[in-house]
Design goal:
Elements (H helix, E strand, L loop, with lengths): L3 E4 L5 H12 L3 E6 L2 H15 L4 E5 L5 H14 L5 E4 L17 H16 L1 H5 L5 E5 L9 H5 L6 H22 L4 E6 L7 H7 L7 H12 L9 E4 L4 E2 L9 H18 L1
Parallel strand pairs: 1-2, 1-4, 2-3, 4-5, 5-6, 6-7
Antiparallel strand pairs: 7-8
């Protein structure tokens, strides 16, 4: 059965590759990018290469949560339902590591933005009989600091990225319990895949970007959602497995959610 799929961060890297694969399979796709011209170009490219005209998109800079709010509103007005949400958008290095609110851009783009977007459009997911959320985490995971969430400290690019990726992993497990009708899976798509982000960050890569795109697509179309709900897929191992210990600590998860809600309310 063809699905309605929204993929954030899908004008480049594994997000774009996954979109290409899913478009070829005939699914209805909604892409997201922060640059309107590039988004239009990618949509046109995918339509031409896949002969699938059921592709559209939304523009938002995820470092600006006001834009995430506007994108959420546009989605709710335009879409009747969503079968699969793939929270793929992410950043590692940036010439401006802090947002105008003084929060690390990795925390905002990689964690706050998908958190806010997901809850804003949750009603559209609940309308699907096989709703699914795929949250992109990473092998890089580090204990989340409340100080980093609120912007009172700065850390290295690597540390900020690792904390943002553990945050989205912890929230994924929380969300899976909170939304029993929506399957939620956290995914490490693979370490050092051949993408612009990885090359800019490390200057090298280990594996083809197709490795990450393939597993995103596999999880997006899996039929038995119960098999993946509330789990962590580690594509370095090629299987579901154990995540960072903090992802199973209910006290740490509760503290993370409380701090996240406080930070988002302060922003609003």
């Amino acid at each position: 059965m063809k699905k309605i799929i929204l993929i954030t961060g899908s004008t480049d890297g594994i997000g774009k590759l996954a979109a290409m694969m899913l478009a070829k399979a005939g699914h209805r796709l909604y892409l997201h990018g922060r640059n309107a011209d590039k988004l239009t170009e990618v949509i046109s490219e995918l339509k031409t290469q896949t002969n699938n005209n059921s592709i559209d998109g939304f523009v938002a800079d995820f470092s600006e949560l006001t834009e995430v709010q506007k994108m959420s509103k546009d989605i709710n007005e335009k879409l009747t339902k969503i079968d699969v949400l793939i929270n793929n958008a992410g950043v590692f290095k940036s010439p401006n590591p802090l947002t105008k609110e003084g929060i690390d851009i990795r925390i905002v783009v990689n964690y706050f933005a998908p958190y806010l977007l997901t809850y804003n459009i949750m009603d559209k997911l609940r309308l699907s009989a096989e709703a699914k959320i795929i949250n992109l985490s990473s092998a890089a995971q580090s204990r989340v600091s409340s100080d980093l969430l609120e912007g009172s400290i700065t850390v290295s690019d690597q540390e900020a990225y690792a904390q943002s990726k553990l945050a989205i992993l912890m929230w994924s497990f929380y969300l899976a319990k909170q939304e029993p009708r929506v399957a939620v899976v956290a995914l490490n798509p693979g370490s050092l895949l051949n993408t612009n982000m990885v090359r800019e960050a490390y200057g090298k890569f280990w594996s083809s970007a197709d490795k990450g795109a393939d597993i995103i697509c596999d999880l997006a179309v899996v039929k038995n959602c119960a098999d993946i709900d509330g789990q962590y897929y580690d594509n370095d191992r090629g299987s579901f497995g154990e995540a960072h210990p903090d992802a199973y600590d209910e006290d740490l998860i509760a503290a993370l959610i409380d701090k996240t809600e406080y930070a988002l309310k302060a922003w609003q």
